[in-house]
């Protein structure tokens, strides 16, 4: 009887364990839990935020589409109810080519689309990040973007500098001042057609190499106040180029790998090799020595080079090793794994991957809908050198960014913590070495878990001082509006004054 009792008890426990395991792996049970989570999330975001916005969708300012009285505007009209492969109406917009100056002989033209790394297309932002239509990696068709920035304002996407995307002409820019002058020339031609936009509040935004573009463009506009009939209020840059390569790539690289050891999954022999190089090159204790709040003076280079000294290129060493283990390793978001997702724009990770042709913006019907040149080959990142002799400008933290911060109402910098192209700790170093509004760097450290996203909770770290606000976004890679759109739009709300606090 005792033995039978023990057998019965064992059988009962085994059945219970099996049933529990089955519930955890049953697709219907998992789907039900996901539905419950979505319901809770939806219930939360329908509440109103501090500005009174209903957050069933991304908050809207109530801005209406503007009717343009100039007959010339009609040639740029885009019908949002009849756009290739988009099965919903995303509203009216305008697109096409305009010259960068009023000269009768001007052949250089920039492409724009208003919905409201150098040479990479702004249409990636429009179509996969913050526009009203988004076609994410791995999805079968485009979908409505509830986090579109067009819920906040009219948005102008510009393919610049000359040589980028659909733009026409031969690149001539030698530095960022040239780029800024050409873009302001384009804006002048744009406002001649779309006159109703004159005098409006204006915000500049961009990501990656736009860390160079945007501050220099803003500084040019502030330095030429009569050149443009727009009121520049502030700038927003994501995962931006701010300083030297050694600062934003090399110094933080090995620490980044240690932070995400389970993601990189390197063996211990290789980790020891990395640590040895890291120490030899002066990277290992750089943060603990020099990243202070407030800073104790200018931050030095770890060696002699602004890129890396001989034998100290740990960033490329890590990248090459990561690709051996994970062929789908994505420098733009390190969490990606095999297989590589299909991308309608042909660039779903570290490298171009054109699984179908033509690419979306190479389709003849898309070019016609956007009034682009049918003969221009569109590439997400152009093979043309938009700086024929290299960009001669220094990183913005050494030159124009302090002036832009001081003259703007607000400046916002956001950085994805899962970005390996430009590493967030490198941005911290660059900012702590910059002097603005009479002081060097932030005087107090970033507050952990201080960035609170409505309906979600803590979503990263943040610090705000002297009109500069810096966010670090968890779970986001290089393109914050693509990987964490709820965080991107909330930071943009703060820039534009729809939120009183960051």
Automatic annotation (TrEMBL):
<dbReference type="InterPro" id="IPR018202">
    <property type="entry name" value="Ser_caboxypep_ser_AS"/>
</dbReference>
<dbReference type="InterPro" id="IPR029058">
    <property type="entry name" value="AB_hydrolase_fold"/>
</dbReference>
<dbReference type="GO" id="GO:0006508">
    <property type="term" value="P:proteolysis"/>
</dbReference>
<dbReference type="GO" id="GO:0004185">
    <property type="term" value="F:serine-type carboxypeptidase activity"/>
</dbReference>
<dbReference type="InterPro" id="IPR001563">
    <property type="entry name" value="Peptidase_S10"/>
</dbReference>
<feature type="signal peptide">
    <location>
        <begin position="1"/>
        <end position="19"/>
    </location>
</feature>
<keyword id="KW-0325">Glycoprotein</keyword>
<keyword id="KW-0121">Carboxypeptidase</keyword>
<comment type="similarity">
    <text>Belongs to the peptidase S10 family.</text>
</comment>
<keyword id="KW-0378">Hydrolase</keyword>
<keyword id="KW-0732">Signal</keyword>
<dbReference type="Pfam" id="PF00450">
    <property type="entry name" value="Peptidase_S10"/>
</dbReference>
<protein>
    <recommendedName>
        <fullName>Carboxypeptidase</fullName>
        <ecNumber>3.4.16.-</ecNumber>
    </recommendedName>
</protein>
<keyword id="KW-0645">Protease</keyword>
